[in-house]
Every structure is written in C-alpha cells, then in structure tokens.
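Morning!

This is the sequence you dropped in the shared folder:
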Amino acid sequence: MKRLRKYAGILTLALLLTACGKDSSEPAAAPAQEVTAQEASAQTATEMTQAKLPPVMLYRTKDDGTAALQGYDTVSENVEKPEYTDVLRLPEEIDGLKVTAIDAEGFADADYFGSVDFPERIFEMGDGCFRNSTLSDLTLHETLPMTYGNEAFAGCEKLEHVWLTDSDMTFGNDAFTGCTGMADFHYQEGTLIAGNNFCAGLTGMWNLILDCDATLGKGAFSGCTSLTHIDLSGGTVTLGDDCFTGCTGTETLLFTEAELHFGSGCFAGCSTESLTISDCTGEIGDNCFTDCKEMQYVLIQEGITKIGAGAFAGCDRIETFDIPASVTEIGEGAFADCGGAMLMVPAGSYAAKYAEGHGLEYIEK
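The structure's back. Tokens below.
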C-alpha cells in the first residue's frame, strides 16, 4: 500500500514538472500596439501629399490691388501639371482680384496651349511674358491700351499668325524675334508702336498689312527675306532707320492714304519691282530705297513733300520716276547711279528745276 502511494506521488511530480517546462518554453503573447494621435496625423499628411492638387495659377498682388498672373505652377510636386489645350482662357479675376497684367516671363517656356483668350482688362505684359512658349496663333482685339515688354513673344517658333485690331499697343524691342514659323502679321485700326528689331530676321514671313497708325523702330522687319507683300496704309506711318533693310524677297510695296515719315535706309536692298505711293503725305528719308536693284517703276502721287539724299541711288533698273508738284525738296544724289531713268515732272515744278540743275533727263507733264 505504501509502495502504491509512493508511485502515485512520483507520477504527480512528473506531471507537474512537465507542465512547468512547457509554459517556460513558449514565448509570451505580444501586447496590443496603440497608434498615437501624432502618428495618425503624420499618416494623414502623407496621404494628402500623395493625392496631388489640381493645376494652380500663380499670381502677384500689385500695388493697386489688382493681380498680375505668373503662369501655372509647374514646379511643385504636389500640384498637377496643366494639360495641353488649344485655347488657354485666362481668368478675369483670381481670388477676388481683377486681373490686369501678366508678369515678366509669366508664361515663358509654357508648353500647354496653342492660343490665349485674354481678359478684358489686361493693360500690361512684362518682358518675355510668352517667350519660347508653344503659342501658335495670336489675336488681340481689345479696345483698351496694352503695353508689352521686350521679347514678349520672342522664340515662339510655332507662332504662325498675328492679328491685332482696334487697339493701342506698344511693344518693346525684339518682341517677335526668333518666331521662325510666322507667316503673316496684320494690324487693323488703332495705334501700333513697335521697338527695335520688332520682327527682324523672320524668314518665314510673307505678308505684312498695317492699316493703322504705326511707329516702327530701327530694323523692325529687317532681314525678313521671304516678306513678299508690304501694305502700309490708312494712318500715320513712321519708320525707323533700316526698318526693312535686306527684305530681298519683297515683290510689292504699297502705301495708300497715309502720312509717311521714312527714316534712313528704310527699304535699302529690297527686291520690289515697283513702288506706289498713293494719296499720301509726308517725306521719303535719306537712302530710303538705295540699291533696290529690281525696282523698275516708281509712282509718287501728290502729297509727298521731300525726297531725301540718295533716296533712290543705285536703283539702276528704274525706267521712270513720276514726281508730283508737291515735292519741294530733293536731297543730293537722290537719283544717283540710276542709269538712264527718266523723271516725269509737272511743268515749272521744283522737281523740274532740280532735274535741269543736276543734268537729269526729264519730261514735263
């Protein structure tokens, strides 16, 4: 009996030791993790950063309480880039402020539009405001004055057509320099003031029509070798020195019902075959048409008062010059090296006396 109780005690001890060994070998259950408010806030911020904002138009508040646009934000990582659109419609207001200007380089290098619909109250556009952008068509027809800085549209290689109407506009220097795709430029009514080298060197341009008051700076259209048609009519036209120098593709020069003030060398070296100045007043500057080797016929109707020195020098293919009685001043060498050109002059006119005094052939009409 004692031996049985002994075995039972041993068995009980063994079971207890086995149970204790099992509990000590198993890892303790991990305590439940708690997410703090700070960690939750950081997680939410991360999710918001990954979800980008729609395109954002940047602007600057001017001293007068209006806004100057600075183009879309294309730099920030949390803002979507604007998608390309044929027409970019700029806002009339932004954050309750009237839009009246575009800052310098505001849309420079922009690649998300083909043309622009401007607000009514745009008064000023800064230097390089659309430089090197993908602008392909430009139409400005507001009746309010507008000022553009230097190189406003320079380098817009896709720009083909420019139409400006019913406006008073002032452009800085080199406004369209490098717009190699431009084909035609048309300004109807209003006043155009263009700086130096306005459209210089645009070898793709073939058509220029200015039916407005126009003041063009030095070399404004110089070197436009494909410019075949030039029509400056309907207003006061003031051309700076060398304005169209080197336009070797010019076929037609037409001036109608305008007040003309031509600087020195305006059309020197142009290839036009004929020149018609009809119902105009004003003056032809010195060396204005020097070395226009293709010019054969010149018609200057009543109204022009002066032909500058060397104005037609070297135009050796001209057969006749038709000079009106209104001309009361002709500079030295105005018709030098013009071969056997004949001057058609009114009897007793200043031009008749000039021809006789300089040994030029003339016929009184």
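Headline: Residues 1-26 have pLDDT under 50 and may be disordered.

More detail when I'm at my desk.
O.
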